Amino acid sequence: MDNSICQVYEDEIQSLEEEIKLLAEKYEDSQQESTFFSDEEILMSIKSFQREFQGQSKGHESPSDLKAQLESLETDLSFLMKFTGIQFTSHSKKTMEKTTNRTVRKHRLSGNCHSLSFQLEFQLLEMQNKESVSAVITDLSIIMESGEDSDVSKFVSSTEEHGNLLTFFRSLSSYAEWYEHRRCTFLHFK
Asked: Is 133 exposed, middle or buried (0-12, 13-18, 19+ CB in 10 A)?
């Protein structure tokens, strides 16, 4: 009887240790998510968003509708960051040229995907016709920690040449995920 009671206690202890480990991981994840943007940056973004769309809405939408829409967009962004592993840490844009039917903006993005960090700089040329707006990426520059992997360097060069950001982010997400798996595996054998 003594052994069965000890086994029950050992099982309970192990169950509690696993629960503590899961809670600690959740806490670390939530801390990492909250450290990417300070409260001031979030408030400035919200105010900027409100100022931008105040002129566009002209009474068509109430502030509560805009707030709900902003919360929905934030939820979508959070989901995409968790799904892809890509987290943007900073973004800036500067209007370089603006005419009635043409706008050139310079964008700078930095972030990380799993354990790999990256920086992007590109110009976005927006041309407006009577019916539609088209956008073209020019002068794409990518800086990425690729270590000594020549395949990544070739991929980055090709992406810069073609200016295809969608392909870059898709490939980065997949590569960074497997890069992290390889890193953990090699650490295990050291």
From this structure: exposed
